[in-house]
């Protein structure tokens, strides 16, 4: 199994030109673009030279994005809306929620990405009672602590599928089922999971799933997020701020808003087209190789990095069990900014989100030797 994965991704390595000069351990932040992305970028440049004559090309690329994303997460046709960011998706969901019918509570994990926490916290101004659930050990995504707070007074629960700071992995099914059991809407932030954790919304009770293409999906540009909304939740999440692209007849430029079918009603203005073009190749790569295989490869590389780090005397700030983490591990260091700078000077890309921890999210095509060299340099940087 391990040998097969090594050989498979060694063969795929040539599709990523950045790996010719860098050891890429920061996929959790910015994914690598496949070679095909740069041809798509050139195609986008051509539209800029000839617009508006090629506006139909933009619409064709836009319409191509929906089935790729639907296939990625097992979503029904028409259940995905494209937006300018994952934060915009969260804002759209929150705007549709109202503190009524005895449901005035919002529950959120403290391991959320900051912008989600900011927006959920701000709902107190609208009459919601907001509760953030801490991790018992500040490492695990503790679904027990979340589930035990759910009851008929909760309007929605906000949780990350993968904690972006340390790769902690949520038991998604348990939270979604528990939320549905009490009539609360589960809102899943899957940005750090898409492409590296298998997700199939068709097998889950109703939920909202939010993500973007810039990380494990290898999208080129910023400015593209998306939201999946289960059809049964559409009526519970009315469109608070209608936009042109969310109209059922958007090309007719009608004076009154007629919501598009399904989730597309949540779309707003003309989307940024560069990320539409540069997201396609990365999505195709993920779908071609399969998220299950990509998950196995990621687990293999994270296990190697964690084992090497522990043997070298370093401490891990991520869950130790493979089934409880995905994408990235966090390693304690004396000075994160110095360690990041040291490794970058040696051609190894890592990052940090705190003063005393670094994050390593290896691209699937990184080799075992590159992982060994990275840990050796981290250890050397501590002396």
Give a concise summary:
With 383 residues, the chain is of the alpha/beta class.
Structural overview:
The structure is a single chain. With 383 residues, the chain is α/β, with parallel strands linked by helices. It has two domains: 2-33 and 290-381, Alpha-Beta Complex (Aspartate Aminotransferase, domain 1), CATH 3.90.1150; 54-212 and 225-270, Type I PLP-dependent aspartate aminotransferase-like (Major domain) (Aspartate Aminotransferase, domain 2, 3-Layer(aba) Sandwich). The chain is built from eleven helices and twelve strands. The protein has helices at residues 2-12, 35-50, 55-73, 86-96, 114-122, 143-147, 172-181, 273-289, 291-311, 336-345, 368-381; strands spanning 23-24, 80-83, 105-109, 129-133, 154-160, 185-189, 208-212, 225-229, 329-332, 348-349, 351-354, 357-360. It is globular and about 65 Å long. The two termini are 37 Å apart.
Looking at this protein, list some descriptive labels.
single chain, 383 residues, alpha/beta, Aspartate Aminotransferase, domain 1, Aspartate Aminotransferase, domain 2, 2 domains, seven-stranded mixed beta sheet, three-stranded antiparallel beta sheet, 11 helices, 14% strand, globular
Give the full name of the CATH homologous superfamily of the largest domain: Type I PLP-dependent aspartate aminotransferase-like (Major domain)
Q: For the CA atoms, what is the radius of gyration?
A: 21 Å
Quickly count the domains.
2
Alpha plus pi helix count: 11
Report the sheet-strand fraction. 5-15%
As laid out across the biggest beta sheet, the strand order is: 2-8-7-6-5-3-4
CATH topology tier name of the largest domain:
Aspartate Aminotransferase, domain 2
Shape: globular
State the total count of DSSP E strands. Answer: 12
Largest sheet: 7 strands, mixed
Q: Report the end-to-end length measured between terminal Cα atoms.
A: 37 Å
Q: What CATH architecture of the largest domain would you give? A: 3-Layer(aba) Sandwich
Structural class: alpha/beta
Low-confidence segments: none
Helix content: 25-40%
Q: Can you give the mean pLDDT? A: 95
Could you spell the SSE succession in H and E letters? HEHHEHEHEHEHEEEHHEHEEEH
The CATH class assignment of the largest domain is Alpha Beta
């Amino acid at each position: 199994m391990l040998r097969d994965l090594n050989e498979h991704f060694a063969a795929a390595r040539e599709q990523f030109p950045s790996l010719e000069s860098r050891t890429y351990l920061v996929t959790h932040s910015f994914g690598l673009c496949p070679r095909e992305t740069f041809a798509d970028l050139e195609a986008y440049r051509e539209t800029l030279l000839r617009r508006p004559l090629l506006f139909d090309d933009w619409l064709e690329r836009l319409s191509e994005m929906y089935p790729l994303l639907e296939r990625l997460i097992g979503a029904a046709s028409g259940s995905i809306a494209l937006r300018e960011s994952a934060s915009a998706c969260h804002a759209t969901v929150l705007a549709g929620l109202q503190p009524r019918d005895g449901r005035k509570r919002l529950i959120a994990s403290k391991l959320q990405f900051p912008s989600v926490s900011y927006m959920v916290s701000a709902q107190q101004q609208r009459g919601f009672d907001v509760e953030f659930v801490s991790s018992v050990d500040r490492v695990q995504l503790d679904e027990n602590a979340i589930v035990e707070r759910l009851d008929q007074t909760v309007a929605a629960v906000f949780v990350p599928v993968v904690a972006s700071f340390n790769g902690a992995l949520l038991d998604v099914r348990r939270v979604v089922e528990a939320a549905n059991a009490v009539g609360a809407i589960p809102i899943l932030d899957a940005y750090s999971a898409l492409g590296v954790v298998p997700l199939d919304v068709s097998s889950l009770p109703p939920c909202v799933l939010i993500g973007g293409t810039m990380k494990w999906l290898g999208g080129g540009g910023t400015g593209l997020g998306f939201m999946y909304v289960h059809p049964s939740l559409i009526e519970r999440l009315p469109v608070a701020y209608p936009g042109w692209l969310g109209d059922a007849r958007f090309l007719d430029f009608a004076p009154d808003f007629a919501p598009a079918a399904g989730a597309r009603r949540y779309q707003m203005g003309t989307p940024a087209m560069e990320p539409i073009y540069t997201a396609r190749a990365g999505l195709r790569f993920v779908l071609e190789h399969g998220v299950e295989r990509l998950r196995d490869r990621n687990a293999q590389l994270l296990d190697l990095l964690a084992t090497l780090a522990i043997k070298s005397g370093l401490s891990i700030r991520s869950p130790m069990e493979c089934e409880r983490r995905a994408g990235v591990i966090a390693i304690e260091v004396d000075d994160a900014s110095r360690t990041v700078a040291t490794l970058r000077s040696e051609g190894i890309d890592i990052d940090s989100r705190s003063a005393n921890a670094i994050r390593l999210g290896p691209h699937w095509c990184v080799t075992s030797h590159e992982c060994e060299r990275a840990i050796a340099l981290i250890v050397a940087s501590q002396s």
